[in-house]
Amino acid sequence: MSVAGIVLCAVLCARTAGAQVETVEGERTEYHWVSHGRIEGHLALKSSPAAAFSPDGSTLAVISEEKIVLMDLKNGSAPRVLHPRIPELAELDMESANFITPDRLLILATGLMKTKEKGLAPRTPPLMFQWDLTKDSLYGKLNGAQKGFSGVRYLPDIRYIALTKDNSFDLWEPLTGKTGRITIPSLTQPARLFDFSPDGKWILLAQIVNGGSVDPIVASMDTKQFVDSLRGHQGTVLSIAFSRDSRRAVTACEDGKVRVWSAGDWKLLQTLTGHFGPVHWAEFSADGKWIASAGEDKSVRIWSADDGKQLAELTESQSPLLTVAFSSDGKYVAASSENTVIVWERTP
Questions:
Q1: Distance between CA 296 and CA 280 in Å, rounded?
Q2: SS3 of residue 51 by DSSP
Q3: Which DSSP symbol is given to 11?
Q4: Which one of 51, 71, 223, 341 has the lowest number of neighbouring Cβ atoms within 10 Å?
Q5: d(Cα 267, Cα 261) in Å, to the nearest integer?
Q6: What is the largest CA-CA distance in the chain?
Q7: Burial of 232 (C-beta count, 10 Å sphere; 0-12/13-18/19+)
Q8: Which of 20, 64, 19 is nearest to 42 (CA)?
Q9: Phi and psi (nearest 5°) for 11?
Q10: Element spanning 155, H or E
Q11: Could you tell me if residue 148 is left (phi over 0), alpha (psi between -120 and 50 degrees) or otherwise beta?
């Protein structure tokens, strides 16, 4: 898509006639969720897209083919376009772009190596690198996953990259270079889905290969042992996420329900119903007041995290939505299908 086309469908033309408005009623304040932009591309599709928002919530990083488009959410100015390039690679396939400082992105990707040999070029292992926004250039060095590790995800709540292999999780903090490994001996098969609590006490494991149950398992970070499970799911759990204060967790399920759990005693607090078909993603706002969910029914739903009441239904997408996230200030919600990102703004 041309830069002119990106500008046409991004922030500057978002507030058109007929744009969707949804109401959120609170005890003292009534909010509206107003359409704020649509752009060709995607956010993270296999991990939380929350870090696609800049730390102050003013910018959203969208992957559009081999470019990254920086949408200016607050000023409504023309998007800026970055062109990540790695000299050794003939092709770069970006999975996510995450703000780790106001002027630096952490990019997770794979690529095709340049080669003079005929035939199919070799594909790289998962790659991790930082990109300088001011210079539009590589910051530091290119890092690759060790052989056998997969499931590379950036976890914005703890600000670590996590990679999995068998029953081990390697953690890497890109700003400081700190690394660590956590091994769960009871985990005899890899978990395709996982999340760490921000307080460092728990890890939730789901989609365990050849597992006998669809319910996520809870492991203690202190003992490295299983301590409980989140029982009652009637389909594959498609996402799991902790609240920022680590006191609750939320699961999105193939059975069309979103479930909220208390951390520690692992009791089911609420079951949120309203989606038609699988719910692909759910997570809390930074302040823990709201939950956003996105699903196969092409909708985003906003819920009260206190009582489970549905506050808004946003139905502008023409494709199933795979991930959704709030900006850090809670003013914006962004949802992503495989090839389109839609943004809504919360206004009083």
A1: 7
A2: helix
A3: G
A4: 223
A5: 6
A6: 67
A7: middle
A8: 64
A9: -60, -40
A10: strand 150-155
A11: left
Q: What residue ranges define each of the domains in the chain, with the CATH number in brackets?
A: 3-347 (2.130.10.10)
Report long-range pairs for 261-268 (Cβ below 8 Å, ≥24 apart).
Answer: 261/230, 263/197, 263/201, 263/202, 266/218, 266/228, 266/229, 266/230, 268/230, 268/231, 268/232
Residues 6+ apart with CB under 8 A from 310: 272, 274, 301, 302, 303
Rounded to two decimals, the pTM is: 0.89
Give the single-character DSSP code of 240.
E
Asked if 47 and 155 count as a contact pair (C-beta separation under 8 A), the reply is yes
Each residue's pLDDT expressed in tens, for the chain with a length of 348 residues: 333 233 323 333 333 333 454 545 444 457 788 989 999 999 999 999 999 999 999 999 999 999 999 999 988 777 899 999 999 898 999 999 999 999 999 999 999 988 877 767 788 889 999 999 999 999 999 998 888 887 789 999 999 999 999 899 999 999 999 999 999 999 998 899 999 999 999 999 999 988 779 999 999 999 999 999 999 999 999 999 999 999 999 999 999 999 999 999 999 999 999 999 999 999 999 999 999 999 999 999 999 999 999 999 999 999 999 999 999 999 999 999 999 999 999 988
- Strand order across the 67-72 sheet: 59-64, 67-72, 80-82
Which amino acid type is present at position 105? L
In this structure, what token pair is assigned to residue 290? 């709201």
Q: In angstroms, how far is CA 112 from the centroid of its own chain?
A: 25
